[in-house]
Amino acid sequence: MKKGSIKNNRINGEVLRELTSIIRDDVKDPRIDPLLTVTRVDVTPDLQYCRCYVSTLGSDDTMAESIEGLKNAAGYMRRELAHRVNLRKTPELQFIADRSMEYAIEMSKKIEELAKAGGMPKDEPEEDLTEDIDEQTDEDEEETDLPEDETDER
Q1: What is the per-residue pLDDT across 106-118, written as a single tens digit (0 to 9) for each?
Q2: What is the DSSP letter of 94?
Q3: Are 69 and 31 in contact (CB under 8 A)?
Q4: pTM for this model (two decimals)
Q5: Structural domains in the chain?
């Protein structure tokens, strides 16, 4: 199975759904933040490993504690995953902090600051291009019209 194939994408989706359900409903570790989100799952094509990208709305300390709790419960989650998903092998779970949401928020704030400072061009109203299109279609019709005496009579 190749990475990025349809089958691999389906397995990733199924593992993501079941892993989210397991973390939300079955894992009772108090270190895991209740606002923890599994953002992405990458299962290797040989089904040996599964990289689980997680994010939380808390601080870096909350993220570190949540990942420690997830690593501690990884064996239980792997066993539950084996019961719920029918795979040849059950992948070993690796948890990675996903900071893409924090990065997106930071970039959004920077863009807003630039817009307020006048560093970004203001949105200009779009020109009315329908008049140009109408003029072009009129010209095209004039070019395609045949003189009356050259029409094909059948």
Answers
A1: 899 999 988 888 7
A2: E
A3: yes
A4: 0.68
A5: 6-96 (3.30.300.20)
